Amino acid sequence: MSVKDKVIAIIAEQAVLEPSDVTLDSTLESLGIDSLGLVESIFSIEEEFDISVPFNANDPSEGDFDISTVASIVTGIEKLMVEQKGSV
Amino acid sequence: MKRVVITGAGTINALGHSVADTMEAMREGRCGIGPLEFQDVDRLAIRIGGQVRGFEAEGRYNRQQMSLYDRFTQFTLAAAKEAITQSGLTFSGEFAAKSGVVLGTAGGGVSTWDANYRSVYEDGKNRVHPFVVPKLMNNAAASHVSMEYNLKGPSFTVSTACASSNHAMAQAFQMVRTGMAPAMVTGGSESMLCFGGVKAWEGLRVMSRDACRPFSANRNGMVQGEGAGVFVFEEMEHARKRGAEILCEVAGFAMSSDASDIVMPSKNGAARAMIGALADARVNRDEVGYINAHGTGTTANDKTECAAVADVFGPHADKLMISSTKSMHGHLIGGTGAVELLACIMALRDGVIAPTIGYEEPDPECALDVVPNEAREASVDVVLSNAFAFGGMNAVLALRKFA
User: Fold this and answer.
1) Which end of chain A is more exposed for a tag (fewer CB within 10 A), N or C?
2) Using one digit for the tens of pLDDT, what is the confidence trace for B322-357?
């Protein structure tokens, strides 16, 4: 499974949707994921990819990790994987 | 002062997943205590308990709920559903704004602490699920009940060890009696039957390895249970107007503090709580037909409690009945008074006194009618429910048959 497919699976589970309902340009808000759901998604991402995501729920825009769309999340994860593990 | 009645009851415990099943087990003197089943039980010296069996959270609660509900919250919600459904109440508008939920628990989300400590200490993980804190906090159960049923009035959690749910119900009673709330959801729950929970209790050396035999000369300690008891306390006129079925009346309560020892019980503290409850309920001591004892099955508690009863009731102590249902469902710690209130309701409403099972040898220091081994039919008008906690904090409720 690619990073993109894994992220879509995580987000779909959180939103209680089918993976086919989640596209790269979906926003978490449009999928109905609230702040608790966001924190849980980040946890699942960290567990799945064995990375540490710089995310502070007090200020989600702080830090480099862009959560505005599914595509930006995938890009952010790939960047973190290179930084923290040397490759995607 | 308003009168306060109980219009709904719910439970889940080792004897059953409902009030009807639990009362049937109490009538039959059935024992819900058995071998414990959970991870690492083989590293415990104490391997028995009143564990709730056949309760699958999966399917009952969705994935999101599961990530937020510790087992003590799951038990609470199951019991609250039964109680509120029976009451027939729905909470909206001004009624919802004034009605709340006060629950007792000693440990809160013990198994959540346990599982996550295991994960970071034993498994060496450096990350825990984001909801660990909202899952384990002691008020989680009360909060979820408030959200589920739209209870927007006074709501909080009381934690006084083994007296938690009696203290909680005393608060709820006081709120309805003073007119502060028209109805309150109240009771308590506990779920400490996991490796760390039982290991901690083991350390005190007060646990029995084979059975809970309150008042019996050969008793050798307490046995832990788990579960929840939840009730709807409602202002009497409010209940009457809507034609609700009334299970019994809550007549009074009292609390006392021993102010002496962190674990040893005090006859004087227990006696003062019982005397206070009788005075608060304005009943004479010879009207009391039954006492649901704290009756833990430890040497110290049972003889101290019996001595306190003898002091408070004088010659009438030999006429009343006193039993400990912990012999059947185990000691639910912070939830115990709530489950034991069911035995009080059964006594008042059905005229059936729950027995003290496992009773084998009379103890001269517990020379009262402890309703040994078999339930008894008897008409009683007033009952007491005792709870005497570690830390010397006591809470006694007085209940009356509703007529």
Assistant:
1) N
2) 999 999 999 999 999 999 999 999 999 999 999 999
**Per-residue DSSP letter, B108:** S
DSSP H or E run through B13: strand B4-13
**What is A3-85's CATH number, 1.10.3630.10, 1.20.58.100, 1.10.1200.10, 3.50.50.60?**
1.10.1200.10
**SS3 state at B135:** helix
Q: Indicate the domain borders of chain A.
A: 3-85
The pLDDT tens digits for A30-64 are 999 998 899 999 999 999 999 999 988 888 777 77
Supply φ then ψ for residue B384, to 5 degrees: -115, 150
B129 is catalytic: no
Determine phi and psi for B292, rounding to 5 degrees: -85, 110
Q: Write down the domain spans for chain B.
A: 4-241, 252-400
A40: which chain B residues are within 8 Å (Cβ-Cβ)?
67, 129-131
Give yes or no for B123 touching A (CB within 8 A).
no
Please give the ipTM for the structure prediction: 0.84
| Chain B residues touching residue A36 (CB < 8 angstroms) | 130-131
